[in-house]
TrEMBL record:
Its main location: membrane. One of its GO terms (cellular component) is membrane. This is TM2 domain-containing protein 3. Residues 1-28 form the signal peptide. InterPro entries: TM2, TM2D1-3-like. It is found in: Membrane. PANTHER family: BETA-AMYLOID BINDING PROTEIN-RELATED (PTHR21016), TM2 DOMAIN-CONTAINING PROTEIN 3 (PTHR21016:SF7). It comes from Odontophorus gujanensis (marbled wood quail).
């Protein structure tokens, strides 16, 4: 009776062992599947965090509100026809007749406000001006740089290169800043009447030459008693006609 029971118990043990092994295998597969399911959202979350952290935030560019520099030259709500040229843009009509009045179509620049004769704001308007280039204007219509390095009292009279700018209320064709050759016309404050009076009264002692800043000639006249009167007479004539002037080369006032 013991022999038959042996194989049965052995078969039962083998069946239990087989069941446990199958259960272990099944539990391992389920655990791997669960780990895979949990890892996928975490990796997706890490990718989304990485993408968010590396992407630069979008910032909308602010619109420029800076006012142009020319606006300071433009009177607010003034007559459009009286605006300075820097405040408007005009259609240049180069076919106009030189020296004649011509009409030009103009419009105001951005941020500039002007009105017409009826106090109505307008952007497009017309102006009347003489048909001529800026460098052809009269000397009173532009301002030029001055030079104190050239000699004004000389023969021939010297010139210098000046940079001229048209006045704001003057309209003309072409560039409003232009070069021009001008005569030396600066003054050091010496008066022609004073120099002539000194030459007539105290010229024998060189007072006229001292006054004009010509020290060597003044000392020569002083110690020669005006060249025995001859030098004195010549200086009266030369100062009278303006041939002898200040030593710094400036004009009389």
């Amino acid at each position: 009776m013991a022999a038959p029971c042996g194989p049965r118990s052995l078969r039962r043990l083998c069946g239990v062992a087989l069941f446990v092994s199958q259960l272990y295998v099944l539990s391992g597969r389920a655990g791997s599947l669960m780990a895979t399911k949990h890892s996928q959202p975490q990796s997706a979350l890490s990718k989304s965090l990485t993408a968010t952290s590396t992407s630069a935030p979008y910032v909308k560019a602010a619109e420029s509100t800076e006012i142009p520099a020319y606006v300071t030259k433009c009177p607010s709500n003034g007559l459009c026809s009286r605006l300075p040229p820097d405040c408007m843009v005009c259609n240049t009509n180069y076919s106009c007749i030189y020296g004649k009045l011509a009409t030009f179509d103009c419009r105001v620049k951005p941020h500039v406000h002007c009105v017409d004769q009826n106090n109505h704001e307008q952007e497009n308007f017309t102006i009347n001006m003489t048909c001529q280039f800026c460098w052809q204007l009269p000397t009173a219509d532009y301002v030029c740089s001055n030079s104190t390095n050239c000699m004004t009292v000389s023969c021939p009279r010297q010139r210098y290169n000046a940079t001229c700018t048209v006045r704001d209320h003057i309209h003309c064709l072409g560039n409003r800043v232009f070069p021009k050759m001008l005569y030396c016309n600066w003054t050091g404050g010496y008066k022609w009447s004073t120099a002539l009076a000194l030459s007539i009264t105290l010229g024998g002692f060189g007072a006229d030459r001292f006054y004009l800043g010509q020290w060597r000639e003044g000392l020569g006249k002083l110690f020669s008693f005006g060249g025995l009167g001859i030098w004195t007479l010549i200086d009266v004539l030369l100062i009278g006609v303006g041939y002898v002037g200040p030593a710094d080369g400036s004009l009389y006032i």
